[in-house]
Write a structure and sequence with these properties.
The chain is built from six helices and no strands. 33% of the residues are buried. Helix 1 packs parallel to helix 5 and helix 3 runs antiparallel to helix 4. Helix content is 67%, strand content 0%. It is mostly helical. The protein is elongated.
Amino acid sequence: MGYNLAVQRWVVAVLALALVTTGCATPVAGRPVAGPVQTRASSPEVVRWMNNFCGVANYMIASGGVQLDQPPNDPAAAKKAISDALGRVVDVLNVAVHDLGELTPAPVTAADAAIEVIVEPLGRARDKFVSAKSTVDGATELTTDVFSAVMQSMTEAVSVMNEAVEKMSVVKLPDEFTEAGEQAENCKRR
């Protein structure tokens, strides 16, 4: 079975969507409004924790902006390009899951639940991308069956990534952490 343009475009679209969904920012309608000025200093431990938490989010947002080129028409080159792209997604998720895991135990126990809510779907999405990469790497050539299996794993991974993004948008950290975020360098808007 041959390699065709429609499959190439589908792979690029799903990979691009997967990379974009790794960001933890959710666009909202409306105008930004300045919040109240905090005069109370947060504990250095909580500020450090928030700085690391926002650092992981910044890493994922920056990684989600990676652009993918159209896979080459040559099946062997396309296989390598797809494998490499999946490898980059897996690497980003490995770093994010690891670094988020390093944030537990948090200085305040309530923040640990927020980390668990985020890490669980990210870990599942990573496992789906690993499966897709393994399927590509284990295939002697890119057949329709191989593409179907890869697309199934990637579609499931993107669904789980969307679940992670949704969970990130509703995670509520304790007030002390919100206040510390205003003091943490990685949490400041750039």
